[in-house]
Design goal:
- It is a single chain.
- By secondary structure, this protein is an alpha+beta fold.
- Helices cover about 35% and strands about 20% of the residues.
- A hairpin with a 2-residue loop joins strand 3 (about 105-110) and strand 4 (about 115-125).
- Helix 6 packs across helix 7 (about 210-225).
- It is elongated, with a radius of gyration of 20 Å.
Amino acid sequence: MTNHQAKTYQDIYHDNLHPYTDEEYMTQTVRAMYRSYSNNSLCAIKDTNSIYFAASKSFVKTVGMTQENIIGKTELDFSSQVKNHYKEFYAQDRLVETQRQKLKFLDIHQYENGIAAYITRKLPIINPATNNVLGTYLVFSALKPNITNKAIKDIHKFNDLSNVKSLNSLADINFSPREAEIIFCISMGITERKKIALFLSALHGKSIKHDATIKSTLKSIYNKIPNINTIADLSNCIEQHNLNCQIPQSMLKIGSFPLT
């Protein structure tokens, strides 16, 4: 896994004076992916039909495929349960291409080696010479810890934010499930109350009010942590205490959920 941030392709090739054709640009993009990421990184490239054009060794292994048979295939061909979410992934890819901007998703699925949670960043591949969208670039960052097959029936042992004991100033604080969810959202860059409410509503399949539930829960968090009075304060605190890799147990819902 990696925290390395993918560049846009305009950044990568901005200084190159050669105007690539779309086919050449896609080839250069694949080469850039393999140069930028190690074999242990999870990343892949899909075309405008969500057909895999390239993928790292770790990604291929995670989804139960091989380097040879993933090219030219879609999630429908995967041996892991990820294939059940093909329609969601396809819609996300089209949204990234239509909006021409990076989008971020929380993905929790039954992968080849068990349930695992990832933050998936999807970037549009745009050839600056033609301004054509050629596909989608995917980069995955793992949330801790992964859940193995052995732990699937005992999922409550997942490392809940409310049970974190390794922190100094926060070691004695007991966050409620809703507080832990909001802290996770803020750690993922969702810092507006309305957007937090929309994300949690989608995750839980019920309406959560930003002007009632989220506002009152934030106030409760502020009361529990010294010198925290705003979302900006809380965001800094989360970063300081390395809480940005923890996902609350109550958020362990199989599926793909938009974070942006």
